[in-house]
Structure formats: structure tokens, C-alpha cells
Amino acid sequence: MNFEFTDMKRLTESLPGTRAAALLALALMTGALPAAPALAADASPTPAWVATWQASPQPVWGADFLFSAHVPSELRDQTVRQVARVSLGGQRLRIVLSNAYGKQPLTVAKTTVARPRQGSGDGALADDSLRAVTFGGQEAATILPGASLVSDPVALPVAALSQVAVSLYLAHATPIDTFHWDGRQTGWLVSGDQTRAATLRLTDRARQSTTARPLLTGIQVETAQAARAVAVIGDSITDGATASLDQDRRWPDFLAARLAPHGVAVVNAGISGARLLSDGMGVNALARLERDVLAQPGVRSVIVLLGINDISWPGTAFAQHAEPPTLASLTAGYRQLIAQAHSRGIRVVGATLTPFEGALPGTPLADYYQPGKNALRRQVNDWIRHSGAFDAVIDFDAALRDPAHPARIAARFDSGDHLHPGDEGNRAMADAVALDALLPGLGAH
Fold first, then answer.
1. CA angle at residue 97 from 91 to 98, to 5 degrees?
2. pLDDT score at 39
């Protein structure tokens, strides 16, 4: 048999399926057709995208809510400049915008990214770092209601644990329905198109700062080979409610510093006021799990630190007439979250709920703590530690509690409100994480 490949292809196409398959097999065995070339053993790694920063989207609430939203209801002919610290770096990046809770399409007229000027603190940009951002090759982009939008890749090399400034120009009336409330980072709302301004300028409409994050929900980087990410789904303790402003001292920030040398990213899916079973200042955990964790590129493991608001909101100004959850309802919620993550091959690490006796004194939420609520917290922690439902457990309760008074956070870790850890408490939480519990093989460094 001395057929060329094209001859064999022509012949087999004219035969019934079974006879054609047999003839092809015979040709391969007798050498009439060359075997498929072997893959090179030293093939170069394939670049891949990984989530490196996140601000989980929330619906903007009305003026009658307990807390101010810190954003205007509408922006028009204004530039929004936000700064974010990435966990892993890369040679190229892309940004993610969200209109998750919007009721109409939103148009972003122009977008840029740059590195912030070192130590400026006022939104100024580093020289020669400004890059235009496009979406499908176009400068302007429309985000449909309920949708998100991923930009084209931008050739701006960023180092691990470095900052990126993102500027969005909203030329027309743009209702702000989607945001992240507690960014713990100063951003700016300024008049006109200042997306390319190295230094933001004041006009007759005064410059306004905000710690909320409108529209911007994610940053991804391209790494030389596929990188892994750890997501953290949590509430205000994870969101960094009392961490020092503009200092990147949330506990996931400290964890990111530990994981960056291992080439592992950390994405913070914390929302202040978040709950496992109910909506509140954001939707319930199962409603946002796909968007905030499972769909994030590169995520291989998720830490779950949720439940304290489920236990403590009922009876407060947040949920005055709500019934408290039961241990069974909470554990069912955890099990469902675990099942959904496992179905996508993602490892799930449970974290115990931290002490909170005396929480939020002198505030409208002074009844957040009650002895019965603490009893339920202890039952939940016992289940997290001993049920075997999680792939691994981080004992944040043990890491933060006062040994002489275990229902309270130790004074050196307390922010002062007896609920949220301060910067040193956040550092202690990150240090309590065994890295090989997150991704086996990393080692406990």
C-alpha cells in the first residue's frame, strides 16, 4: 500500500463507516500513513489568566438604610478613579466591570489603567504607566442589566502585591445600582473626562472622595503558566471593616503576602453584612457563590467565614422581627455550599466564627451580642471543627479569643468594637492559616 494521506482520506470518505475505520487502522499499522507527531516533552508552559483582586458586587440601598451608601445615585460627565492592590502580578491584565443589580444598560465612555504614583495618596499616576482599556476593541463599552464585562488584555506589567489605578469616564447620566460598599480604599469622583490625567484636577464642581467601589469588581492577570487562586467568602471581618484605610491590612491581604511567593493569588469575596442563609447588605452566600467564587479564573480553594450575622442580626435594628436560625439550618447551608464547590473540583476550608461578646457598644446594634447567640456560635464552631464536612478547618476562634475570657476577642487583636479585629488581629488570622490546608503541597510556611 503506497497511498498518500489525501488518497486514503478520499477513499475512506467513499466507504461505509465501519469499513472506512478498518481501512484507516490497517493503513496505520502497515505504515501507509504516518503516526501523529508526538508532543515535545519540553513544550513551553501555556500562559493563563487568574483572578488577582476582587470587590464583590452588592445592590445599592436607599437613603433610609442604617448606613450611608457613600455614592451618589447617579453619575454624569464624571470620572471615577479607584486604586486596588493585586495579589499576584503578570505581564498583562484585564478588568471586570459589573452591572449586576442595574435595571438598564450602562455605558462607560472611556477607561484607563495605570500604576499609582508611589506615596501620592491622591490618585496621581506614575509616569509612563497610563494605558487605554478597550472592550472588544472598542473604547466605549455597554454593560447590560445583570451582566458583567471583561476588558481586552492590557499590556501593563504589574508586580505581585502592587497597586493598579482604574479610571472610568461616565459621559451620560448613569444610575449607580451596583457597587461594593466598604472598599477600605479612597477613590475619587471628579468632573469631566480625567481618565488620562496624571493628577486629578479640581473644577467648579468640587472633587469628591469615596471608600465605596462603583462598577469595578475584578482584576485578572496573565501568568506565564496556569496559576492557582484562593477565594475567601465572608462578611465584614473578611471585607476588612476596621482595617486601616488605604493600608491593605485586611486579613486576606496578609494572607496574600504569604501566598504570593508560592505563585498563589487571593481574591476577597467578603461583603460587610453578608450572611450564609439570608440577603442583607448583599445577597445570601449561595446566591453569589457562582459569581464570586466558582466562576473566578484559577480558583482551586475557598475559605468560608460566614454565619455570625445569621446568628446575630435577628432582634437588632437590621432584622428586628426575624427568627434566629437553628444549628440545623446553618449546617444545611454549609453543606450545600460545600457540595456546590466540590462539584467544580474546588477545595472547601471552613473557618470558625470569632468571639464577639460586648460587640458594637454605643451603636444602634448594641444588642448584636446576646448569651443565647454566643451559645449558638459555639455549637456552630463545634460542628465546623468536628463534623468532617469541610476539607480542612482554620480555627480563627482559637486564634483571636482572650484565654481568660474566651467569649471576647483578646485586647491586642480587638479593633475596639469587640466584633472586628484590628490590623494586628487581621495579621493573627492570616498567620493562623496553614498553607497546606488551602492547597496540599504548599507546606506550612
1. 150
2. 38
What is the C-alpha separation between 431 and 2, in angstroms, rounded? Answer: 69
Q: Does residue 24 register a pLDDT over 60?
A: no
Q: Report the alpha-carbon distance of residue 126 to residue 118 in Å, rounded.
A: 7
What's the Rg (C-alpha) of the chain?
A: 26
What mean pLDDT do residues 432-438 have? 97
Pairing relationship of beta strands 78-85 and 163-170 according to DSSP bridges: antiparallel
Other CB atoms within a 10 A radius of the CB of residue 106 amount to 24
- Alpha-carbon distance 266 to 4, whole Å? 54
The order of strands in the sheet holding 392-394 is 264-270, 228-234, 299-305, 347-351, 392-394
C-beta separation of 125 from 79 below 8 A: no
SS3 200: coil
Helix/strand/coil for 297:
coil
Q: From residue 90, give the alpha-carbon distance in Å to each of 190, 300, 317, 440, 443.
A: 30, 19, 45, 24, 24
Q: Which residues on adjacent β-strands are paired with residue 165?
A: 83, 114
> Which SS3 state, helix, strand or coil, does residue 436 take?
helix
Residue 135 has pLDDT above 80, yes or no: yes
Digit-coded pLDDT (tens) for 320-376: 889 999 999 999 999 999 999 999 999 999 999 999 999 999 999 999 999 999 999
- State the Cα–Cα distance between residues 6 and 441, nearest whole angstrom: 49
Sequential DSSP letters for 93-151: EEEEEE-TT-SS-EEE-EEEEEPBPTT--SS-B-TT--EE--BTTBSSEEE-TT-EEEP
- 377 burial level (CB within 10 Å; 0-12, 13-18, 19+): buried
